[in-house]
Design brief:
1 helix, mainly alpha
Length: 124
């Protein structure tokens, strides 16, 4: 009669196979977890890159808005400069006309004084 307390070589081999299979399952589970963590990290990186891309686009739009506003301000400043030059020319022309009127008035005063002097009666 065989001794039942002693394991058979087949039993040891089966136990070894079960142990290897369990190790393989554990390692497969570990790799699955690592792959899942890697996917999560990749997704986080993708989200971060998308956030950076959106921020760059927002900054580009703000830059374009600022450029457009600057161009409009430059155009407005140029128009104001031209209007100022025209106003200075108009003021100069007005001053020239005023000076000419003052000369005419002064000439008329002289003429009136001369007429008054001529019309004075000589003393007796």
């Amino acid at each position: 009669m065989p001794d039942d307390r002693r394991p058979s070589p087949h039993w040891e081999l089966a136990e070894e196979h079960r142990s290897s299979a369990e190790s393989a399952r554990s390692e497969a589970e570990r790799f699955r977890q690592l792959a899942e963590e890697a996917r999560e990290v990749r997704d986080q990186h993708r989200e971060a890159l998308e956030t950076v891309r959106q921020e760059r686009e927002r900054l580009r739009e703000a830059s374009e808005t600022a450029r457009t506003a600057g161009e409009e301000a430059r155009t407005g400043a140029e128009a104001a400069r031209e209007a100022t030059i025209e106003a200075v020319h108009a003021t100069a022309e007005t001053l020239r006309a005023t000076l000419e009127h003052m000369r005419v008035v002064e000439e008329m005063r002289r003429t009136l004084r001369d007429i008054r002097d001529v019309n004075k009666l000589p003393p007796n």
